[in-house]
Amino acid sequence: MAVVRAATAAMRATSAPAVRALAARGVHTEAKIEEMGLKLPTPPTPAANYIMCHRVGNLLFTAGHLPMQEDGQLFNGKVGKDFTTEEAYTAARQCALAILGTVKAEIGDLDKVKRVVKLTGFVNCVDAFSAQPKVLNGASDFMGEVLGERGVHVRSAVGTNALPMNVPVEVEAIIEIDE
User: What residues does the Endoribonuclease L-PSP/chorismate mutase-like domain cover (predicted)?
Assistant: First the structure.
């Protein structure tokens, strides 16, 4: 709501057509991401015989997204050994940001996201680790921060003994869009 108020105030302060159009639209998902000091990443090229996003009707199914650091390197390691729960939470946030980058590439405008239906997350962790839901809160919280009520979803958080390229977390999504 603060973004809408800010856009409305900006519209009153200037007659720029682009600002008026932004305020009239009412959501401004990408502006929210920029306000958070983040940039949507370019979707990665699939590493094998799959695609990053598949559209079925008004649903998008994403492939698993891996956590990328700001320098373009993947986070590497096992939660409970190389990563704390809090550090893995941050990695899960990066997965969610990557998912939104893929969704933007697919539909062109994140304001077309009607709802995040489900997130499924896998946590590469030691056998005794049992805080997988706390790790996946990183992705869930991020979707809520960026999308508000549209980011509320169901979720599965699964612990595993290994993930591709030794990443600590991988997240995939089902997202409903307005057509």
Answer: 32-167
